[in-house]
Structure formats: C-alpha cells, structure tokens
Amino acid sequence: MGLEITEAYVARGARVVAAARGSEGAAESLGHLGDRAVFERADVRDPESVRALMNAAADRFGGVDVVVANAGLSRPGPVTGLSFEDWAEVVDTNLHGLFHCVKEAVPHLGKSGGGRIITLSSALGGRPTRGASSYCSTKAAVEMFTRVVALEPAPLGITVNCLSPGFIDEGMGRLLKANEAVWSQYAPKVSLGRMGRGEEVADAAVHLASDASSYVNGHVLEVNGGLAW
C-alpha cells in the first residue's frame, strides 16, 4: 500500500520520499516514477533513524507537507503461545514507530505553515479477532493516538487523520487471501463481496492530504467495502 500511495501522490504532482527498513527492490519499485520519488532506508523503531529520514526529506525537497505513517506488522498467535519478543516487536513497530514519526514530523510540518499527518490503522483495530491480540491492540491504540494528537498541532494548521483499511489485496491481505481456509471465513463479512485494491486506499490517502479535507481532523476513515463483523 505504501507504493500505491506513493504512486497516487506522484500522479498528482507531489514529490515523495518513501522509506522502509530494508532496501531490497526499492529502487526498482520506484524507478518508473523518475526523480519525483526517492527511497531512504529508515527504521521507525529507532527515533534517530526517523529524525534522519525527516531531515533528509526536508533537505531534498525543501520541506515536508504530508507524512503518511504506514509501517506495520503482525505476529499472529494465541496469547498463551505468543512470545514476548513477538508482542514487543509489534508494539515497537505499530505504536512506538508511529510515535516517533509524528513527533519528528510536527516541527517540519509547522515550518511549512500547516500540513497533514495520516496514520494507518486497520479494520481489526475495532474488531476483536482470535490470534491477533498484538495487532488488534496496537491498531486500536493507533486510532486513539490519532484522535489525541489531532488536538495538539491543530493551531499550527496541521491535521491528523487515520486511514483504516479492511481486507486489501496487498501485503498482509494478499497472504490472507492465499489461505483459502482462513479467507473463506472472512469473505462473507465484506458487503461488496471482494477484497479492496491498493489504489482504493491510496485514493483515500490523497483525499486526506488534499485541501478538500482541510476541515477534517481526528477522523478515522474506514475503507473496507462495508465490513460487517
């Protein structure tokens, strides 16, 4: 979804710094976007790495206007069988990583005279699911964090909103769909009868970054095809 959002922003004239922990295939993935999208290696779990990322974006393009904090992972398993290391890795990425990104983004966005922060939750942030305690818990926290933080930099003209995708045919969603036994349990819950596409989430990310959403703040926008739980 990060690539889909990058492509959607570039298509509308933005210049984008995309980041990930690993650089495998990054240049190839962004190559068709020319010099309007560049890659920086960053680990959201490390505040110094995030600070360097924001500084690199500002130095390269003269400032930062929009930050999409979409790094996330899942370590499924029942609570009794989940190791603390797996639990901590999910919390460190999904929640601590978001904290680092927002904290480092606000000063740059303030210099731009306003801006947008878009966080990423999940349909499971508000829907309990067996074997997903770490993922559900952190995504629920992302939504509350978004609502709280939205109150703070608002006087600077910065809005903070959250995208909550449902079952999307990218990344973790694609792996879910490949497991027919599991996907058959979830598919009937989607009113539109299909997984979402990455570009449909990207379109929502474009809206939250645009002037059309200038009076939207602290909102959780669900993009889930009418998911009934």
What does the model show?
With 229 residues, the chain is α/β, with parallel strands linked by helices. The protein has one domain: NAD(P)-binding Rossmann-like Domain (Rossmann fold, 3-Layer(aba) Sandwich), CATH 3.40.50. Helices cover 45% and strands 14% of the residues. It has 8 helices and 6 strands, in the order αβαβαβαβαβαααβ. Strands 3-4-5-6 form a 4-stranded parallel beta sheet, sandwiched between helices. Helix 4 links the parallel strand 3 and strand 4. Helix 1 packs across helix 8, helix 3 packs parallel to helix 4 and helix 4 runs parallel beside helix 5. The protein starts with a helix and ends in a 6-residue tail after the last strand.
Helix and strand topology:
Elements: H1 2-11, E1 16-20, H2 26-30, E2 37-41, H3 47-61, E3 66-69, H4 84-111, E4 115-120, H5 133-150, E5 158-165, H6 171-178, H7 180-186, H8 198-209, E6 220-223
Parallel strand pairs: 1-2, 3-4, 4-5, 5-6
Helix pairs in contact: 1-8, 3-4, 4-5
List keywords for this structure.
single chain; 229 residues; alpha/beta; Rossmann fold; 4-stranded parallel β-sheet; two-stranded parallel ribbon; 8 helices; 6 strands; globular
Largest sheet: 4 strands, parallel
Q: Distance N terminus to C terminus?
A: 23 Å
Overall body shape = globular
CATH topology: Rossmann fold
Indicate the mean pLDDT: 94
Task: Please state the structural category.
Answer: alpha/beta
Q: Give the number of domains.
A: 1
| Unreliable stretches | none
What radius of gyration results from the CA coordinates?
17 Å
Please indicate the percent range of residues in DSSP E strands (runs of 2 or more): 5-15%
Major β-sheet strand ordering: 3-4-5-6
Looking at CATH, the homologous superfamily is NAD(P)-binding Rossmann-like Domain
